[in-house]
Amino acid sequence: MNNALIYLIVMIAVAAVVFLLAALVFGRGEELAPLPPGASPTRLPSDDITEDDVRELKFQQVFRGYKMTEVDWALQRLATEVETLRARVRELEELESCEHRA
């Protein structure tokens, strides 16, 4: 009986230490209040994305990180914007080189 009580006390102490270590390492949960179901903090303007828009970009947190569909959407939007800007730069450079030849 005495051994069982000591075993139980040691098990409780080990469990408490493991819990405290896990709480210190992983935190006690999300720091932000959860969003309503279906809501998303991911926002980007329809065109003319600025550096501040990218800096303020937030993704909904899920169990294992961020919601993959939101991250994929934001990356696709940014890639499209970069592609559009680069095409416009090429267009302006071609226009400028044509003007210099004339």
From TrEMBL:
The chain crosses the membrane at residues 6-26. Keywords: Cell cycle, Cell division, Coiled coil, Cytoplasm, Membrane, Transmembrane, Transmembrane helix. One of its GO terms (biological process) is cell division. One of its GO terms (cellular component) is cytoplasm. It comes from the Bacteria. It is found in: Cytoplasm. This is Cell wall synthesis protein Wag31. It comes from Lentzea albidocapillata subsp. violacea.
